[in-house]
Automatic annotation (TrEMBL):
Name the record gives this protein: diguanylate cyclase
Lineage: Bacteria, Pseudomonadati, Pseudomonadota, Betaproteobacteria, Burkholderiales
Record GO terms (molecular function): diguanylate cyclase activity
Alphabetical list of CDD domains matching this protein: GGDEF
Domain GGDEF: 207-341
PROSITE patterns with a match to the protein in the record: GGDEF
Enzyme Commission number(s) of this protein: 2.7.7.65
Naturally occurring in which organism (per UniProt): Undibacterium oligocarboniphilum
Top-rank EC class of the record's enzyme: transferase
Catalytic activity line of the entry: 2 GTP = 3',3'-c-di-GMP + 2 diphosphate
Length: 348
């Protein structure tokens, strides 16, 4: 397979897999965890971590105890101060509330603020019980600690999200640095690196690898006659035709101004020659419109395969493909040449 971003950044992605796991956990799960802790730590009937509204969150009927407790909680605004009402029946505001004087007979209420990293109010952590009660100094400190833990969890969630965004941006920038901006193919650095990676893989799996070195025949004259923009547009269309002739996992890259390399992992010399011929015929049989006129376009291709040159490095393989390309150019336009030992200019 061709070089991928996984080959370039697998270590970074593994290091950040923890951020993925943290963000994968739903906020509802985290909220429920802290509410269970609150009920256990303070031995209360219920508690809510609210950021604005908890009514309807349980999915239960409005006549259920949990939903009535949620309604009571939501009728109290978020506050940035610690609020505790030991006995709601004695409170001027809540003493006549229907859920205090009637079912479920809520008697105790406490609310502790949850703050953001900038000190702004995000929500409140609330305790409800059916018996009047007070919070001693230790319980007050425990509630403060729990609120701090919630704030840290929220801050960590923001940090993880920001970190993942940075990782994504870094991957995009890394990818962009390897892409030719005009053609959308790999650039020279990337295609050479891809060739090296694929050669190693093919050696390990005892499979052949072939390399195509392409050069359009008319491009230099086209640039001189019609200018850079027109010739660039023509090259883009030619690259599209090349893509249509190769497999999705074959790597295509710009090696020079008009020169292209195609890495064909697993392809023998016979397969590579067939692919090269398919590319040549596809380009030859589709004249391009240049300034409203149909213009014949052809390409020369040098082919080199590891089943003929089994012990060469990537640089040597490129050099052999270039020699085959030069032989194709010397033989005339619209030609494919396979590199052979001792016969670099042999035409097929």
């Amino acid at each position: 397979m061709p070089m991928s971003m996984a080959d370039l950044g697998s270590t970074t992605l593994q290091a950040n897999s923890g951020f993925d796991r943290i963000l994968a956990e739903k906020m509802e799960t985290k909220v429920a965890r802290f509410e269970r802790l609150g009920i256990k730590l303070f031995s209360v009937a219920n508690c809510f971590l609210t950021f604005g509204s908890v009514t309807g969150r349980s999915g239960l009927s409005e006549h259920s105890i949990t939903e009535m407790e949620a309604v009571f909680s939501d009728e109290h605004p978020l506050t940035d101060t610690f609020v505790v009402i030991p006995d709601l029946l004695a409170d001027p505001r809540d003493g006549t509330h229907k859920h205090v004087t009637g079912a479920p007979f809520i008697r105790f209420y406490a609310s502790f603020p949850i703050l953001g990293q900038d000190g702004s109010l995000l929500g409140c952590f609330r305790l409800l019980d059916y018996q009047p009660r007070t919070l001693d100094e230790e319980q007050h400190l425990l509630l403060s600690d729990l609120a701090t833990a919630i704030e840290h969890e929220l801050a960590l969630n923001v940090i993880c999200h920001n970190q993942l965004e940075l990782v994504k941006q870094n991957r995009r920038l890394k990818r962009d640095s390897l892409i030719d901006p005009l053609l959308g193919t790999w650039n020279k650095v990337a295609i050479v690196r891809s060739l090296g990676i694929e050669m190693e893989r093919c050696v390990r799996s005892d499979k052949p690898l072939s390399l195509l070195y392409l050069l359009p025949d008319q491009m230099a004259g086209m640039r001189q006659q019609h200018g850079q923009i027109t010739s660039d547009q023509l090259l883009v269309r030619m690259v599209s035709r090349v893509r249509s002739c190769i497999r999705p996992f074959d790597a295509l890259g710009r090696f020079g101004n008009d020169q292209l390399l195609v890495v064909l992992p697993g392809a023998s010399r016979l397969v590579a020659t067939a692919v090269a011929e398919r590319i040549r015929l596809s380009i030859m049989t589709h004249p391009e419109k240049v300034e409203s006129e149909e213009t014949a376009v052809t390409v020369c291709i040098g082919v080199v395969s590891s089943d003929i040159f089994p012990d060469v490095d990537p640089e040597t393989l490129i050099s052999l493909a270039e020699k085959a390309l030069l032989s194709a150019k010397n033989a005339g336009n619209n030609t494919v040449v396979q590199a052979m030992p001792g016969q670099p200019d042999m035409m097929i």
